[in-house]
């Protein structure tokens, strides 16, 4: 089979399109003929060697996977050859977990083997591309806003990096949950216009505006109730200024760094809660809910660009250049 493989860490050029052995499945696994893979920032960080998660080389990445069951292990029930499926990437073990596309080979290949318990049938007319866009981004948005922040109708939300796949989903989930005000930030006016189309009420260009000052103006100095942050350290100080009393900040990503000075005073005085969000801790029900919201069109999958498997390196580069609005899809 063909696969996109890297034998060393580095720039996107380390990804090679080459032949690989077709996986042999165990009695508890299924073999999937991959149709769609959506890329994430984690894929890029893993390839560059900047992620703390362990990756054995050579490695086939690709965490978000949808395809067709090609072979079924002898002990597997409830699945048949030809079934359309999406993959829950978190393999739960007796102690801890592993992630498909991280600790195990992923979907950037013509075939991938998956534990049968990690396969979810694709219901209705949901496309492979749409299904593959759900496991990381949509689940992160749902798990973060609902199960970590307990966002309630009528609350105000700030979503950073609205042009990312997760940012697009967070805006829509907040809208679905009837937030009274959704503020979105991004680095270009073009992305901000698209964010408004998805449901953002107010938008801020963080390259030309001080987002903390703008949030203060928009909220009349009261701040937001929930802040969905994918940036990390570089935005920390301003993020705290954006939060109102009893505000909750969701730490989702760290593209802006992992270390910041922690200011205890504002956290204490405003009763601020700091909540980590790890999608791999989300329960299976979060994936099932996100898939249903997508199928029922409460959430719209935003696909920025599609690449063939042979151009996976170019797809990684596209994400690194922050050129996308929404998801980048690979079709093997």
Describe the model.
This protein is of the alpha/beta class. The chain has two domains: 2-133 and 302-331, Quinone Oxidoreductase, Chain A, domain 1 (Alpha-Beta Complex); 136-279, Rossmann fold. Helices cover 28% and strands 28% of the residues. The strands form four sheets. Strands 3, 5, 6, 9, 10, 17 and 18 form a seven-stranded mixed sheet that branches. The chain has a six-stranded parallel sheet with strand order 13-12-11-14-15-16, sandwiched between helices. Strands 2-1-4 form a three-stranded antiparallel sheet, with no helix packed on it. Helix 4 (165-176) links the parallel strand 11 (156-159) and strand 12 (181-186). The chain is globular and about 60 Å long. The model has no long low-confidence stretch (mean pLDDT 94).
Summarize the structure.
By secondary structure, the protein is of the alpha/beta class. The chain has 10 helices and 18 strands.
Oligomer: single chain
Global structural class: alpha/beta
Q: Under the CATH scheme, which architecture of the largest domain would be assigned?
A: Alpha-Beta Complex
- Provide mean pLDDT, rounded: 94
Question: How is the biggest beta sheet arranged?
Answer: 7 strands, mixed
From N to C, what is the helix and strand string? Answer: EEEHEEEEEEEHHEHEHEHEHEHEHEHE
Would you spell out the secondary-structure blueprint of this structure?
Layout: E1 2-6, E2 15-19, E3 29-38, H1 41-48, E4 59-60, E5 64-72, E6 84-87, E7 90-92, E8 97-99, E9 111-115, E10 119-121, H2 128-132, H3 134-148, E11 156-159, H4 165-176, E12 181-186, H5 189-198, E13 202-205, H6 211-218, E14 224-229, H7 236-242, E15 243-251, H8 264-269, E16 273-276, H9 284-295, E17 303-308, H10 312-320, E18 327-331
């Amino acid at each position: 089979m063909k696969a996109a493989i890297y034998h060393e860490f580095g720039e996107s050029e380390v990804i090679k399109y080459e032949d690989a052995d077709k996986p042999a499945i165990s009695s508890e696994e299924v073999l999937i003929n991959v149709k769609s893979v959506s890329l994430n920032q984690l894929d890029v960080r893993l390839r560059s060697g900047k992620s703390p998660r362990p990756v054995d080389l050579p490695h086939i990445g690709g965490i978000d996977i949808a395809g067709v069951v090609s072979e079924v292990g002898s002990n597997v029930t409830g699945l048949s050859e030809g079934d359309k499926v999406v993959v829950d990437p978190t393999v739960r073990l007796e102690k801890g977990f592993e992630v498909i596309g991280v600790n195990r080979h992923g979907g950037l290949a013509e075939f991938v083997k998956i534990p049968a318990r990690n396969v979810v049938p694709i219901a209705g007319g949901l496309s492979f591309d749409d299904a593959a866009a759900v496991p990381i981004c949509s689940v992160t948005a749902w798990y973060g806003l609902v199960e970590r922040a307990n966002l309630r109708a009528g609350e105000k939300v700030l979503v950073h990096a609205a042009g990312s796949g997760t940012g697009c989903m967070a805006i829509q989930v907040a809208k679905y949950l009837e937030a009274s005000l959704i503020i979105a930030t991004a680095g270009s006016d073009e992305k901000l216009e698209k964010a408004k189309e998805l449901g953002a009420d107010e938008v801020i260009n963080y390259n030309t505006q001080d987002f903390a000052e703008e949030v203060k103006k928009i909220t009349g100095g009261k701040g937001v109730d929930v802040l969905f942050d994918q940036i990390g350290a570089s935005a920390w100080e301003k993020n705290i200024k954006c939060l109102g009393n009893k505000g909750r900040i969701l730490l989702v990503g760290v593209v802006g760094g992992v270390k910041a000075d922690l200011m205890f005073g504002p956290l204490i005085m405003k009763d601020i809660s700091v909540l980590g969000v790890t999608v791999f801790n989300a329960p299976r029900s979060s994936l099932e809910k996100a898939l249903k919201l997508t199928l029922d069109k409460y959430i719209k999958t935003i696909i920025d660009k599609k690449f063939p498997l042979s151009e996976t390196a170019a797809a990684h580069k596209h994400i690194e250049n922050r050129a996308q609005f929404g998801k980048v899809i690979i079709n093997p």
